[in-house]
């Protein structure tokens, strides 16, 4: 029996009434929320393994839009099934093979084109959670069109020194009690970025927080965690505002 890496119970969630709407862009469905005023700034949100329909991720999209960004969460699983709480962790490695966070370039390009041509976006940032955090790390190495990135508890893949040569400012957020990402990995990331990264970056670890902590809706937060969740979200927005 493999330990469930997501200590936040995904089954127990209060319902959420979304503020945005769904669109289809080429072969991809997406959830979009816009601020009430015109802006040429946009943010792409990359969902975790629970996919683009998950209420928590839509809440985050609405939250970022509230800070003045056209915010979009595309279905990076392209219509295939997200991970479900009823699935068995023994099958997770197999599922991941079919859902590779390093193979998001084509979808990212489609969404960037949509934001620039249909929404008039001139500056575009990207934020991703868990699976999406890994995708953000990958895209910040590959896509110069992304002005700034925030990777939240994306597992750190160490396949080459190129993994640290980020193209634009990137902020890495971790929880101290995340048992999918060891503290040594975070320390190594810091050492390697110091060595190879030529742009602004930041790493921050939030005390006592488990994997998935930063995307909870207010009514689903435990009182002890609330200040750290709110701080992580404020830090995320502040990072975006600094560059976008």
From TrEMBL:
A Pfam family hit: DLH
GO cellular component: cytosol
Record-linked InterPro entries: AB_hydrolase_fold, CMBL, Dienelactn_hydro
Annotated compartments: Cytoplasm, Cytosol
UniProt domain Dienelactone hydrolase: residue ranges: 28-242
Molecular function (Gene Ontology), one example: hydrolase activity
Main location: cytoplasm
Family the UniProt entry places it in: Belongs to the dienelactone hydrolase family.
Name of this chain's protein: Carboxymethylenebutenolidase homolog
Gene: Cmbl_0
